[in-house]
Specification:
Shape: globular
Radius of gyration: 17 Å
Helix content: over 70%
Mean pLDDT: 78
Structural class: mainly alpha
Largest sheet: none
């Protein structure tokens, strides 16, 4: 297994999760330490699960993956971004904003769909052609995602001095841009 390529793949997969974690940090104002851990854990778990699914699908038939995963990721990120923009318009008198498990689940799915596609080509891309090599690459992907997502959450949290509605607007715009990036690239 090519360790350098595996690390590069892990960082590239974690980039979207980290960006969304920044948005979550911007939005969260209660239990932020616990929310940061849950956010990082969920993103890492999905980034680890999806390549395994993709690898399994790739073993059965490489043609089973269609182009629909990009459209699904785009739609999820777009809808969540628009939702954040509309939430910013609501009355923010309490200043309390909570990240729900449902939102984290959708964010996790949206940011890990590219990991599903990568899983199908892991044997060729980084030499993860055995279950042991797959496990090593998936652990690396999960660890990198956890670290970057946790750091991203706290980075976003550091910008909480903005009004909560401004933070949600910024977060919504970032999610929409990420969705557009997924569909274009």
């Amino acid at each position: 297994m090519d360790i350098l390529s595996a690390f590069a793949a892990a960082v590239s997969l974690a980039a979207d999760a980290m960006a969304v974690s920044v948005c979550c940090g911007l939005k969260s104002s209660t239990n932020y330490k616990k929310t940061a851990l849950i956010t990082a854990f969920m993103f890492a778990a999905f980034q680890m699960l999806m390549p395994v699914l993709g690898w399994s699908i790739g073993r059965v038939g490489s043609g089973a993956l269609g182009g629909g995963q990009r459209i699904a990721a785009f739609l999820i990120l777009l809808l969540l971004g628009v939702k954040m923009l509309f939430d910013a318009r609501k009355d923010q008198t309490t200043g309390i904003s909570v990240i729900t498990i449902k939102e984290l689940f959708l964010f996790s799915v949206a940011t890990s769909i590219d990991a599903l596609a990568l899983g199908a080509v892991l044997p060729v891309a980084i030499g993860a052609d055995t279950p042991a090599r797959l496990a090593a690459s998936v652990i690396m992907i999960g660890a990198v995602t956890f670290i970057l997502s946790y750091g991203g959450f706290h980075f976003g949290r550091s910008f909480r001095r903005f009004r909560p509605s401004h933070a949600e607007i910024i977060g919504g715009i970032i999610l929409i841009i990420l969705g557009i990036k997924v569909i274009i690239v």
